[in-house]
Protein: Ribosomal RNA small subunit methyltransferase E
Amino acid sequence: MARLNTFHLPTDQWPARVGDVVRLTGPEARHMGTILRTEKAQTVRLFDGQGRDGLFSVRDIAKNRAELEALELAEHPAPAGGLTLAIGWGKSKRRDYLLEKVVELQGRGVIFWQAIRSQGALPEDPKATWNEKFIQAAKQCGVVRLPELDTVSGGVDGLLAMAGEFDRCYLAWEAEEATTPLSPGMLSKGRTLVVIGPEGGFDPVEADKLIHAGFGPVTLGPSILRWETAAVYCLSLAMFGAQDRS
Amino acid sequence: MARLNTFHLPTDQWPARVGDVVRLTGPEARHMGTILRTEKAQTVRLFDGQGRDGLFSVRDIAKNRAELEALELAEHPAPAGGLTLAIGWGKSKRRDYLLEKVVELQGRGVIFWQAIRSQGALPEDPKATWNEKFIQAAKQCGVVRLPELDTVSGGVDGLLAMAGEFDRCYLAWEAEEATTPLSPGMLSKGRTLVVIGPEGGFDPVEADKLIHAGFGPVTLGPSILRWETAAVYCLSLAMFGAQDRS
Structure:
């Protein structure tokens, strides 16, 4: 049902059963009414970004609000595994693109970390605009679950403190010492964390610390990839790994 | 030597031997002199985009021209295989991004084709600005060979006429009938062509024709990928396939 027009309804407003009526307000209601000119009795798809989606019938619609009745409701189980990327913070205008691709390529999560070569200071908490990017991307590509979003302070030490949450941890290292290619097989089972440096790369001290702590150094290939391309490359291998049955 | 500042010198001006002197003019010379403030006696890297690169010493430099002496010259053999993407034409502002990623992820070539659902008319010949995008991307990522760039008229029939140049041809099809995932193994040997639809997807007539002609229908996964994400996904699997020794 992904080809129907899709709108986001927050989890705390999600209906308990078919026949329940919900209200859409704010930008999502404007998108439905003003931009897509949705009409009474049309069927649309709503999702909550936490694994729930459903078909709804428009009962009433105005410029800034809509009333919808649940016709069909589905709940999709959380995947056991998936790829989380820990990405060195940067002020790059390529960040929006990166956030969009994490959703499309079904990443499990994104953690921004403050690297020695990061440009600018990492915000203490994820920004609402980042989550908004996720929502818009999910509406487009039909994904039911938004990636987890986090920021971690304390540089590499902050990352090491999180390592226990993952089954495997890797470091995408641009140095010649990294000769093992990251592979879909490394990303296909359980929870995996891949750490990517900021634009400008890891400081040697950071790479050393991670490798000593057991993060496996891997290469992404012979090309010098841009920040967001490194992320998209990892996500592509993981999405392939998740569907590979060979 | 990829971390040195890199500039593009066209093939017809490439020096025959070490000690020869070449001249850089136009935007590349301005980039060298005005933006990067390169000075006399500095060493830089030049490449021709056709597999040649080398180290050069700056003998003389002004705002719009530079004179350089060849210190070391290398010629990299053309790869036997590689992935060529045939992408349904679109006027999307995401095209520049796509061209950049083809270089970074070491695609062999890009062919734009006029699909039934293409928005706008495909230019008869590749535009100089597209090649310029390739050059700028290659300067950044250190790739020595620019992808081949072509446009093909006649819709799907134009593509079928080119199929003989490839060892294997696939169709990245968003329909449920496509259940075989595109895999790195399909892309790791010989010359492979993957056809991607325009934004809006293939018309069923186009998919039918390609499949009947022997193009293998493959899925890129469960997500509805944007135009340029589909391309980047295929390129990522191909770049992994080319380095996989397992």
Notes: Chain B has two domains: 6-75, 82-243.
